[in-house]
Design goal:
Blueprint (H helix, E strand, L loop, with lengths): L6 E5 L2 E5 L5 E3 L4 E4 L6 H6 L9 H16 L3 E5 L8 H4 L2 H13 L1 E5 L14 E3 L1 E4 L2 E4 L10 E3 L4 E7 L2 E6 L1 E5 L5 E4 L10 E2 L3 H6 L5 E8 L2 E9 L2
Parallel strand pairs: 4-5, 5-6, 6-7, 9-10, 10-14, 11-15
Antiparallel strand pairs: 1-2, 2-3, 3-4, 8-9, 11-12, 13-14, 13-16, 16-17
Helix pairs in contact: 2-4
Length: 234
């Protein structure tokens, strides 16, 4: 059964489900994939004089726990930049630490490292790896330009900017490229609460998914996937 608000689509010959909360669920693997949690981003800015509401980690972890419950996931795989910096785990408050410890105990948890957290702390549960291959799909933090195998990644925080009734709206989205051979690669939206975003059609994102014959943005909408063409070969 498809969880409420998650929309099914096919990626690399696998059924996937994309949720409005920016998580990807892989039913055959019972795996929930999330990118760019950036836990403790607000406290990192606070140390530098920019005071942001200090609730980003709690909100991110609560939404992650909700997504686990909604999907029935037994495995969580994070796609890098899990903490905003290498010392982020030391700044977690007791509540967030307890939440994270409970999640990593209850689930098969894989931390993929990113450019913000190359030295993840080993105090929490789970396995720490630079990348992983699952079901013939490479899971890594940053899309590797020139990759010809199916790939899921994060890093770029893609957002789709559209004009609706004369209002400019930006929403997190996934971006998928398809090569001439049919191989598919996807960049997931950032899951963290204070992550911002890069325009889905930005040259850095389009370049990261080359070689491709077409690139499109994907967003869940009322139980289906809405697709927005971004680029294609002439």
């Amino acid at each position: 059964m498809v969880p409420a608000m998650f929309a099914p689509f096919e990626f690399a010959a696998h059924e996937m489900l994309l949720g409005p909360g920016r998580a990807l669920y892989w039913p055959a693997e019972r795996a929930l994939l999330v990118a760019d949690l950036h836990l403790e981003k607000a406290s990192w800015f606070a140390q530098r004089g920019s005071m942001l509401p200090p609730y980003d980690s709690r909100d991110t972890l609560e939404r992650l726990a909700d997504a686990v419950r909604e999907t029935g996931a037994r495995r969580v795989i994070t796609l890098g930049d899990n903490f905003h910096d290498d010392a982020g785990a030391l700044r977690l408050d007791a509540h967030c630490t307890g939440m994270l410890e409970a999640l990593t105990r209850a689930l098969e948890w894989v931390w993929i490292t990113g450019n913000h957290d190359e030295e993840l702390p080993k105090g929490f549960g789970g396995t720490i790896v630079p990348e992983l291959e699952l079901g013939g799909v490479i899971l890594r933090h940053e899309a590797r330009a020139g990759e010809t195998a199916p790939e899921l990644s994060g890093h770029y925080h893609p957002k789709l900017r559209v004009n609706v009734r004369n209002r400019h709206i930006a929403r997190p989205c996934a971006v998928m490229g398809r090569s001439e051979s049919g191989a598919e690669r996807m960049i997931l939206p950032a899951f963290g609460s204070l992550t911002g975003g890069l325009d889905a059609a930005h040259p850095e994102i389009l370049g990261a998914l080359q070689p491709a014959r077409a690139i499109e943005a994907l967003m869940p909408a009322k139980g289906r996937i809405a697709r927005f063409p971004l680029w294609q070969t002439a």
